[in-house]
Amino acid sequence: MTVIYNLGLSLYSVALGLASLWNPKAKLWVDGRKNLLSRIREKAGKQGQSIIWMHCASLGEFEQGRPVIEAIKKEYAGYKILITFFSPSGYEIRKNYQGADYIFYLPVDSRNNAREFMEIVRPQLAIFVKYEFWYHYLTELRARNVPTILLSGVFRQNHPFFKPWGGFWRSMLDCFQVIFVQDPNSAKLLQSIGLDQKTIVSGDTRFDRVLDLSKNAAKLPLIEKFCNNHKVVVAGSTWVEDDEVMDHFAKSNRDVRFVIAPHEILETRIKEVEKLYTNTIRFSAWKEDQENPENKNVLIIDNIGMLATLYQYADITFIGGAFGGDGIHNVLEAVVYYKPVVYGPNHEDFGEAVELVDIGAAETVENALELEKVFRTLLDDANLRKEKGRIAGNYVRAKAGATSIVMQYIQEKRLLTS
Length: 418
Known about the structure:
The chain is an alpha/beta fold. Helices cover 46% and strands 16% of the residues. Strands 3-2-1-4-5-6-7 form a seven-stranded parallel beta sheet, sandwiched between helices. A seven-stranded parallel beta sheet has the order 10-11-9-8-12-13-14.
């Protein structure tokens, strides 16, 4: 199985190399790994330092791991923090994150790369977030007796760990000292393959992260000016399928202000949004000393980093992704502000999105007609909005606390010394 795994990674790297000739994201992936180990050695290979290594697939996993890293940084100030990313969408956005001492792409998982990486970094603790399982890195960590944690894991019956032929994948789980999972069902699955002694139900650290974000949310004068006492819909992480469901309502309800934050901000994507909604202005094109633009009720956010703060201005929120194949994006950033939330049908694999519908905090819609009905009802009924928002905000606060459970384990097991 190891041979097949190695072959698969090699073919994946070759495919990305070819795709990099025309695909900007693939080019970032390839270019970011050129002379990577040499750069890691140059910057992070200093003798005499103690490093904690956290690995994330992308931006979402980074935000998931961030509360733990920041708690460790506060409690164990003598350690250096090294973060690696697999995806450009994580690395390129957070490569200047001030809470880490070193930030790199992850070198491609191979036996030689894993050994050289460990020899350079010599981590005292390794933290993998949610879904990241890299065979050579994990087995090398185990060979070196490095305490290794899986953070906020989610497991489902269809994952290879639970198949009769899944021994190779189960061997990676054996490399973790402790596996923190989000829900009891994940714990039961791990118990079914004999991992009950190293499984802890902690909940999801994202709840801690969004609470922290909401407490420190900056005011955005330009957004306040655009909203100007109108009813406001904030739509986050939208794809074209989401915008096609909303654009008619935005055009026919000019008294409602729409703040649209596309998932990607490539020029082609922004133009796509402008064409659909028509009555638009870009955030970057509007200055604070200008009057509110006439006949414009759609503000397009053409930058990265504002979305989690934008939701505070919403009367209702819409979360993108659930009309496409990849599924819904982060709903917690919206509901933490006590806001009702609406999204499409493809959300069944996302526990919090299902739970929010079940408890009455969220509405799910199948098409544009259903969306218009739900939007109109919520915008017209202030008491209904308030009640759904109350349920939503309380849901987040009831689920917080995973970071404390992880930190308590680290302290009790003396994985680090202060």
